[in-house]
Structures are given as C-alpha cells and as structure tokens.
User: Fold this.
Amino acid sequence: KAGVTQTPRYLIKTRGQQVTLSCSPISGHRSVSWYQQTPGQGLQFLFEYFSETQRNKGNFPGRFSGRQFSNSRSEMNVSTLELGDSALYLCATHSGDLNSPLHFGNGTRLTVT
Amino acid sequence: DQQVKQNSPSLSVQEGRISILNCDYTNSMFDYFLWYKKYPAEGPTFLISISSIKDKNEDGRFTVFLNKSAKHLSLHIVPSQPGDSAVYFCAATSSGYALNFGKGTSLLVTP
Assistant:
C-alpha cells in the first residue's frame, strides 16, 4: 500500500506570495490533517479534513487554509507569505479506526525569502 | 500553551543499554498517546501507542508506560541500537485526529 505522498518536496517563495501544497492520502484513509514543524515551535496542528469538510482547526491565522477533494486528496494554501511561514509542512492521514495512529508524509519544505 | 512536554532535548546512550524517553502532559482529556520517530528531511514514523485504559504496551524492543495520575508517559527501548538514533516525539490526543506534540528528544546511541 502506498504511503502518504506530498508534493512538492521543496519550495522557495518570496514574501507576499501565496503557495499551494498537495497531499495524497493512503488508499482508504479519508481523514487528512496538516501540521507545521518549525525549530522553535515544534509540530503544530493546522487543520483536519474529513469527507471534504474541515472538522478540526488549530490556532493559525486565516492566511492558512485547506480543502479536501472527493477522492480524499487535500491541498493547503498559505496566502500573503511571511518569513515566519518558513517551515516543514507535514500531511498526515488516518484510517478512521478508533485508537489507530496518524501516518505522515515526508513533508514539503517551504522557504520564504 | 504547550500541553505535551518533553523536558530532555537530548539523550545519549550506549549501544545495548536501555533508552528511556520521558513525556509529561497537562490535559486530562487526552485518552490516546503515541510515540513517533523522525529522521531529518522525513516525516514522523509511528512507533508505538497506548490508550488511557492501559498502563503498558509492548512492541518488540519498544515499551510505552502510562501513569495517568502523574500525567506522565515514557518510552523504553531495550536494547538500544545505533539505528535508533533519531528525534523522538511524544504526542497526545482526545479526538484521535488532532495530535498535540512535544518538542522532541534527540536520541544518540553510540557504539
């Protein structure tokens, strides 16, 4: 079974631009979550989607948004990029079974200059 | 507000010995706890988990202990191997989908 696939792996953007990251879940996984990893803050939850609906949301500004498609693939968008948005963005998917773990992709490394 | 804390940023252990990684949490609503291992430039890899109805879970060389009254969990790796060198993250959740992570402990296993 293929794992969680994130594209692109690396991205360099300029302040003020916007960016879209993509995540393809493990087959059969309908829950997709996004996390931001930075050296100072560690891994922080952004939001979670299930059946094309945002079900949970972390404490991030509205510049961070996402969506999920009918095939469970998800995208996350960051608008008006700031230098502090430079981070590793991780997608994680869940089978929906009680007490089963999230499975992570290898992330997209975003650098904002 | 950090609800999951890993107070040791790093740990060094000799090959063959036991590695003990610790984690504390503050939210009594957490009912499922996980440990992930992470190498640079890769996503976290799931290691082992425990639900709040248990106090111990084993999987091969890895054992997780949960002390609910102390709001503390620990990961034991026995015996430690050089390939275990990585950053270990503790995580907790009450929803199953939104994980609260600690900041990680970097484990170095020396030959």
Remarks:
- The two ends of chain A are 37 Å apart (CA to CA).
